[in-house]
Each structure stands twice: as structure tokens, then as C-alpha cells.
Amino acid sequence: MSTGFHIVVCGGIVPDPLQTLEPVSTPAGPGLKNEMMLPAILDPWASHALFEAAHLAKGAPGSKVWLVSLGPKAKLQQVMMSVAQKAPFELVVCDGPAGGFTESAEAAEALAAAIEAIPGIDKTRLLLFGGWQSASRGAGTTMQLVGERLGVTEQFQGVDRLTVGADGSLTIMERVEGGAYQVSVCQGAPAVLGWATGELPEPPNNPQVGMQNMRFIMPALQKAKPAKVGADGVTFAAVELPKQRRETRIVKDTPAEDIAREIVAWIRG
Amino acid sequence: MEKILFLAHTEADGSLSQAGLEALTAAKTLAQGLGAGFDAALFGADAAAAANAVAGCGAGTFFCVSGQAFAQARYATDAAAITTLCQAAEATIVVCADDSRLSRAVPGAAHRLGGRADTHVTALAAKDGAAFVQRWHYRQRMYAEVTRVQRPWFVTVSGGVFPASDVAPGQAAVQAVTVADVATRTTVKEILAPSADEQTIRPDAALLFVAGAGWTKKQADGQPHTPEAAELILGFTTKAQASLGSSKSLVDMGGEGQAVLPFLTHLHQVGQTGATPRHPKGLATCCHGEEPHVVGWRFIGERRAVNLDAGCGWAQGKCDVLYVADAFAVMRLVNAMIG
């Protein structure tokens, strides 16, 4: 396409996956113990979506990437310090809760409003990227809801590859059952793509990109609009940690043959 | 009184999938618990034929959307079909499988109907006249049991939670539903699937075999042995008919230009941004057993690991048996013994 795409990546923040998480009750409903103190990262699926967006924009002249993120802006600032070095984008902030016990419908409402308010956004050129699920709520519904609110009914989930044709058409590979892919062709933008992992590696840190991004990130954080996101209509009867620890038997100093024999017997039941 | 609706799409051969039949059991169970009946809603190329195939399931009315436009999985047409079916049935709770097709379209339909969707549900039950669902949060770190007031309430049920319904065919009470023409700019071209012989992802296999990044690292002699690793891994998964999984580190290496196992893709990834399979047994090799990966093992019943490090993550209560040994040596012998 000669005019490029307007690529909006919806990406929230989640606790670093190496952290120990513990649920607690709060006046606003369930949350995490010391939630605001937990180190956070950009959601891993959203990260893949961002990398894919940057890659696409680089190859489509006239394209632009926005990252629309819902989360406490103080914590978003911390996360952006590292994300900013990965790919060029313009940040749009919704200052609100980013936890896993909020409603995806409410998050989608906030995100859609923020996208609608982006100056100069052209919905006819819109590609809405995000993760097909998340490491917080994990519902896998937010992207569909944002798309519906924006009037986009060409939607794809579990995307691992997007190829743009000379005529602007989009060839999309989506994960389906049994280790297979469904290949579809969409005539063009607008479309919603919920990414799985894509096929790109994580980009190396680029300090120059980071500095360019940070010039716009700080003002974006300062003018972030508050977003009211909760869990209206939901009653949490229980939030619990499942028992995880097993009694591990460690087999050491044992010949490989004996280990192999034991494994084979176990497999055969 | 709740109006419960079982929702499913037909497969390419016109039947209902295993996941769909499991969701049917879930709908029946919920209906019984609430002391209510349930209806069914089917869409696909020939939904009426599918309705007859499960006519004995106990559904009152089978609402059906048929037509070639609904033969393939496509968001625009699927969301429209689901919306129209739920309107026709006046459903308040809709139970379906969380397969790729419904996971894609159900949230949109829920939005159009002013309802909500709870997905990847791992328990569904009636308590004190109300429906409750259980689902995971924070990547299987914790689970929540919830109920809600919004209707219609779409519930997508994870595979393996309920047994598949074994239903007698018959003559179903079918009510055909017409969907207004849907404008779509998407054409489904093909399904890319490896042949049965080449397929290493086997959802129905009894054993999950996970290969970690250690398979491609330098071994005791200071050299990587990637070709031998590939041979050992494929040899085992073929002989044992195991489903192959991998750690994120290993699949990411391919994208970073490092030597990798040629048959591995992102689809093989377990945990983190990958899958959460449900095999009865799992064997991890050359994998450290760190938390982000192991959360993907949540539903693996029996777990064993082979790792040279006695202090790795697996030793911290994450598996039943940890064999401190060279995986190359062990798997070479396993392959010989397993025939």
C-alpha cells in the first residue's frame, strides 16, 4: 500500500513471570500481594505483537506504530524504559489498573476510547495488533472486543505470520487445532490480529531508538487519562493458589541403562 | 430461570468435534444442576445433519444455521451466526468449547448481545441455583471461582474437563435460523497441516516429551551434537508416539539464527507464550524446569525429568522424579529398549 498502515498495538503490563504471585483480597476485589511493588514487563504476547508491528511498518513506507497501554502510569514508566529500546513507536497511555482480575470488556472500552482519540488515526488503514491472550487475565477476548467497538469485523487470532501483498491484501496464518495453521486472505485493512508468537526473535536493545522513543513517552505518561476499569457484575467466590509442590525423588549416580529401563517401564505403564 | 444453550460448529466432515461433545456434557451437567433444560445451537455447512447425529442428547430445540458461508472458520460470518442463534434461542447462558474457531468469534458475539464471555473454563457447576465457573489467572498461577450477573453469559470450556457425550442419533427438532447477509473481506484459503507421519504434536498422546535448549548446547566433549539430538528426539517421539513439546528458549533460538532442531516451531512451545497440554504423562529433557515453562505443565499428571543439574527447577517439587544424567545417553538407550 502506498499510504502505509496505521498499526495500533494494544499491550498491557504483567508481573515478571519469575516472580512469586499470591492473591489477596482488597476493597476493590481480588488482587496480588504487593502488586504495585512487583517488577513488571510488557505482556509477552503483546511484545511479539509489537515486534511484528515494527517489522511490518519498516517494510511498508508511510506506516506508523502506536503502543496503547493500560496500566498504572508509574509502573508503565518503569516498563517503558526497556521496551522503548526494542522498536520505534508512539505511546498512548490509559492510566488504570492492569491486573488479572479486571474485566476484559472494561479494559477494551478504555483501549477503544484511547484509540479513537489518537490524532490523525485513519481507520481505513488500521491494523489492530495485540496478544491473542495475556499473562494476566488470560481470557483471550480483549482484542475482539476492541475491534468490535471500533467497527472492525475482519479478525484473526493466534496469528504467527502476516504477509502483505502488492495489492494491499493480507495473507494471515492462524493457529488451529492439531498443530495446524489456517491460511486466510483478507482484502486489506482494517483488521484485528491477535498474535501468538509470530516468527520474529526479540530485537536487540537499541539505545538510539530508546532515546527517540523516550522523548515522546514521558509526555504521553504525563498526559495520560485515567481509565476506570474493574470487574462490575462479577462475584469472586474464591481465588486460590493450587498446590504445586510435588515430592520429587532425585535419582543420582545411577547408570544410564538403569534410568532408561525405569523410564521405559514408566512409559509403558 | 436460566435458558441454557449448547453452542457448536460442525467440522469439515459434518460431525461435532471431540471438544464440542465435551462441551455438550458441560451444558447438560449445568442444566441438571440448575434444574433446567437446555437447547442446542449449531452452525456449519449442514447443521441439521449434525443435529440429527446428536438428537438423543436431551436438547429441547436445535437451532441451526446452515450454508456454505458457515462451512469455514471466519470471524465475520461466525460472529454473525452465533449472535443470531443466541437471539433466536433467547439464551442466558451459552456453553461451548474453547477451540480456535469459537475462541475467535464468541467474544465478538458476546459484545454484540451486551453479554460477557468467560473463557478457558476448567470447572462449571451450579451452586444454590446459580452457575459458577472456575478459570485460571496469571498463566495458571492461581484460579478463581466466579459468577456474574451479565447475560447472556458465554462460557467456553477447556478440553478434557468433561467427558465427551456419547449420544444416539435420531430425528432432532430443528428450527432453521437465517442470518442476514454478512459482508466479509476474508477468504479462507487452506489448512496447513503436516502429514500424520510428520506430525509431532499429538494432542491425544499419552506422553508429552519436552526438549529443552540443552539439546543444542555444547556437550561434555565441548561440541554441540544437534544432528544426533534431532535423531534421538524424533526417534523417541515416533516410537513412543509421544507428543513433542519444547521450551521457549529452544524455539526462540531458531529466530535468532542459531542451530536448532529443524522440526521445531513455535507451536511446540510449552508454557510461557506456548501451550498448556493435558497429557497424562510428561518427560522433560535438557530443560531447567523454570517457573515460566513449568506453568505449562499444570495439567500433566505424572512428570519426570532428565537433567544434569541436580539443583535445577525440576528438583524444587516440580516433578515426581528427576534423573540426574546425560539425556543423550539415556535417550539413546530408551530408544533401543522401546523398540
Secondary structure blueprint with pairings:
The complex is a heterodimer of chains A (269) and B (339).
Chain A: E1 6-10, E2 13-15, E3 23-26, E4 29-32, E5 40-42, H1 44-59, E6 64-71, H2 73-83, E7 90-95, H3 104-116, E8 126-131, H4 142-149, E9 155-164, E10 170-176, E11 180-186, E12 191-195, H5 207-222, E13 225-226, E14 234-240, E15 249-251, H6 256-268
Parallel strand pairs in A: 1-6, 1-8, 6-7, 7-13, 8-12, 9-12
Antiparallel strand pairs in A: 2-5, 3-4, 9-10, 10-11
Helix pairs in contact in A: 2-5, 3-4
Chain B: E1 4-9, H1 18-34, E2 38-44, H2 47-53, E3 62-66, H3 75-89, E4 93-97, H4 100-112, E5 116-127, E6 130-137, E7 142-148, E8 153-157, E9 174-176, E10 186-192, E11 207-211, H5 226-240, E12 243-246, H6 248-255, E13 281-285, H7 291-294, E14 302-307, E15 321-324, H8 327-338
Parallel strand pairs in B: 1-2, 1-4, 2-3, 3-9, 4-8, 5-8, 11-12, 11-13, 13-14, 14-15
Antiparallel strand pairs in B: 5-6, 6-7
InterPro entries (chain B): DHS-like_NAD/FAD-binding_dom, ETF_a/b_N, Rossmann-like_a/b/a_fold
Keywords (chain B): Electron transport, Transport
Protein name (chain B): Electron transfer flavoprotein subunit alpha
In brief:
Chain A: Keywords: Electron transport, Transport. The complex is a heterodimer of chains A (269) and B (339). Chain A is α/β, with parallel strands linked by helices.
